[in-house]
Amino acid sequence: MTCSGSDSGGADMPLLVVDTLRAYYRTSGATVRAVDGVTFSVEAGQSLGVAGESGCGKSTLALSLMRLLKGGEVVAGSINLDGLSLLEMSAKDFNRVRWEKLAFVPQAAMDGLDPVYSIGDQIVEAILAHRKMSKADAWKRAETLLQQVDINPARARDYPHQLSGGMRQRAMIAMALALDPQMIIADEPTTALDVITQAQVLKLLRRIQRELGIAIIFISHDLSTLAQACDRVMIMYAGKVVEMADAAALFAEPVHPYTRALLLSFPDIDRKMPTRALRGAPPDLSQAFAGCRFSPRCPEATEQCLQEEPQMMTVSPGHEVSCHLQRQAP
Amino acid sequence: MNEPGPILRVDDVYKWFPIKSQGFRNREAHFVHSVDGVSLEIQLGETIGIVGESGSGKTTLARLIMRLEDPTKGKIFFNDTDITKLNGRQMKPLRRKMQMIFQDPYGALDPRKTVYALLTEPLQVHKLLTERGARLQRVQECLALVELPATEAFLNRVPDELSGGERQRVGIARALVLDPELVVADEPVSMLDASVKAGVADLLVSLKERIGLTYVFITHELALAYQLCDRIAVMYLGRIVEIGSAEVVVRSPLHEYSRLLMDAIPPPHPDPEWGTSIPERGELPFFLEPPAGCRFHPRCPAAQAICETDDPSLVEVGDGHFVACHFGSTKGTQR
Predict the structure, then answer these.
(1) Are residues A200 and B193, on separate chains, in Cβ contact within 8 Å?
(2) Is A227 contained in some domain?
(3) CATH number of residue B43's parent domain
(4) Do A88 and A140 lie in a common domain?
(5) Residues of chain A found within 8 Å of residue B195, distances taken between Cβ atoms
(6) Which residues 56-115 on chain A approach chain B with CB closer than 8 angstroms?
(7) Which of A42, A125, A258, B87 has the smallest set of CB atoms within 10 Å of its CB?
(8) Total domain count, chain A
């Protein structure tokens, strides 16, 4: 469980390793186990999508990785980024990791820009807080960054209200890129955007990952966006990972009944298949569970599912699932 | 069925919002052309989807239909009565027959009222079913329609004690309680989780079949409109640029804007080809005055010289399929 940041992140070591992470919120008399034993890793330059319904723990996971969890705390587990044990660092050391190694585009980020400073000023401020360079050089860097996210650098002196929602979101992504991070965590980066703008931001994120080699953790409740933007996809349910696979495999051969139900609830315009709603709601995470957390909603649940918690197992190379109905690959 | 007139007829309607002039030197009046000459007929029992990005004017059109806004110009007929001419008192009996479902299930319900109070309020306003037992019965019927429990415990809940999906179902039940003929739903599922969204969308479809409602369905999600609607109208900068059966608009769109909207939808499986036709940038521009010529020409990949000067009108290119594009009728075979 403990992890002393001794490993210097060898060549074959993943960029990010999260091990049995638990993040709980304690309210009066109850403990909400929002993230309850999550293990995964992300290779350098890889994009990982994290999906699930509201309340499955995906935002809590993102905030835990960024050490921004409010009202809750990480109670167990480890987070290792490029050989650094993030949870064991001092706040001061972590401040250097934030932005320089690990940048965050929070939910509704485009509304998070400061209205009284121009977007250029805000990017320059982020750069100067971490790098020793002249203000003129920082401005030059800010303009390059804006260009990278398809904003005309002439607009660097514009204030947030002068930009459309899509442009504000691009500006936030430019800010995340400011200090050449190895990884960006983006929480619902396209959710409030119009469909064409959403497509443009998705393409932008994909380009950033491929051309700049930056790893991305892309959190969304919208599986269709993850299908286009991610190499791997991880499905969370009630604070746990229930399935993880390469995007192609996950969408072609979803194994967990929850993943299959989620996919069926999406309208597919190519097929005009009637969508099928997923009945019921995720469980109350302040209650203890005996069996599989999805079993109350699972159409295939057996006696074993109600009593015994399933463990993650590999069903084919790179494809892991936690479901009693599956067989471990030989 | 004999041929009744349309339940709703929107006749060349405009809604321009004035913009406050800054200082007194620059006193010229400026207007946002939110709805800029829209005509539309909706038949009884039909479901029509109004699709477009934010700023396309779709929500303003919905509000005009509900007479929550007065048009700058144009007429709106509900069952052959021009509602733009009516005052509040004359409007009241008609309001009963046209109801709205709002986008935000959190904001649309008074947080202090119980489910019962929320559902009986419209009856109270219209002084209907004044007898307690009859009221309760109507509330129970409506809850059954939206597949919510009509138990006493549920009736006593307040919005905070409901899930997002339950709130939106209460919002729908509230719209149904007066037994309306026309329901205008403004992005009724866009704030819901994907899994919940499908359930509410299914409910809207089944309601249409069960009680023969006529819907105007406002959405930015073409896939959803396709699933729910008989016809789809695509709006861009205050105008309808294409309208036709859902099948035709989605499968063989003729307007470049409709095509762009279609292509932008990410399919629910990895598709390496997806997004190739989407330009890297370029968003719905904000114009005080719409661009000259075709208002889509600054973003149109196929724009020609004529598009910069001549404003195309909406012309019929196939059975009930209209498109406002200079090349609309010649493009049909390209795809």
Answers:
(1) no
(2) yes
(3) 3.40.50.300
(4) no
(5) 53, 261-262, 265, 277-278
(6) none
(7) B87
(8) 2
Q: Which residue has the higher pLDDT, B107 or B251?
A: B251
Instruction: Write the CB contacts of B292 (distance below 8 Å, at least 6 apart in sequence).
Output: B308, B309, B311
Instruction: Say if B308 falls within a structural domain.
Output: yes
Please check whether residue B259 is in contact with residue B276, taking contact to mean a CB–CB distance below 8 angstroms: no
For residue B225, give how far its alpha carbon lies from the nearest alpha carbon of chain A (Å). 10
Angle of CA points A154, A205, B220, to nearest 5°: 90
Quick one: pLDDT band at residue B335, thresholds 50, 70, 90? very low
User: Is there a single domain that holds both residue A92 and residue A127?
Assistant: no
Task: List the 174-203 stretch of A: residues with Cβ below 8 A of B.
Answer: 194-200, 202-203
Nearest to A297 by CA among A279, A317, A311: A279
**B166 within a domain of the structure (yes/no):** no
Interface of A with B in 104-133 (CB under 8 A): none
Q: Whole-model pTM?
A: 0.86
The mean pLDDT of A268-295, rounded to a whole number, is 79
Average pLDDT of the segment spanning B280-304: 78
> CA of B102, closest CA in chain A: separation in Å?
17
Distance from C-alpha of A255 to C-alpha of A322, rounded to nearest angstrom: 9
Do A89 and A215 fall within a single domain? Answer: yes
Question: Is residue A221 in a domain?
Answer: yes
Amino acid identity at B128? L
User: Interface pTM (ipTM) of the complex?
Assistant: 0.82
Place of tokens 């920082």: A138
In order, the DSSP letters of B22-39 are STTT----EEEEEEEEEE
CA distance A53 to B169: 19
Out of B199, B280, B286, the one facing A150 most closely (by C-beta) is B280
Give the pLDDT confidence score for residue B196 in this predicted structure: 79
Residue B248 belongs to some domain of the structure = yes
For chain B, say whether A253 makes contact (Cβ under 8 Å): no
Q: Name the residue range of residue B296's domain.
A: 8-97+180-330
Residue of B nearest to A270 (CA): B267
| Stretch B174-199: mean pLDDT | 86
Residues A174 and A82 grouped into a single domain: no
Check A54 against B220: CB less than 8 A apart: no
A300 occurs within a structural domain: no
Assess whether A72 and A215 both reside in one domain.
yes
Query: A267 touching B, CB under 8 A?
Result: yes
B54/A contact by beta carbon, under 8 A: yes
